[in-house]
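hey can u run this one w/ zinc ion bound, need the structure tokens asap thx
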Amino acid sequence: MYTTQKDFELFKKEANKWIDRLSLRDWEYSFEHKDLSKNDATCKSYFEGKIIVLSLGKAINKENRTKREHIKYLAMHEVLHVLLENLYHQAIDRGFCHGDYLAEEHCVIHRLQKAFKE
Ligand SMILES: [Zn+2]
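ok here u go:
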């Protein structure tokens, strides 16, 4: 399923809502709407500059949700990665395995998404 400019606007609006709610304005943000090979959305961080790039894929797999619900889900999900970004860097700096750490981070994110579900 393809995403439109309107979908991208919803993604940005939702992401900004969660950035404010979680007090994550200490990062600088930019947004992209582009082809992402295997993800529906991504969160890229440039830790030194405190810059985050949140991207929505031009094609997504909406699973069991409506497209609108899925885009809102993706926006919250990517912002929760920002919430945990400092921990991620601390862990990786100490030699944690990237894959193992990310699996645990996703466990936390999925619990938070359940708890924050509106
Ligand atoms: Zn994720």
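The mean pLDDT is 94. anyway lmk if its weird
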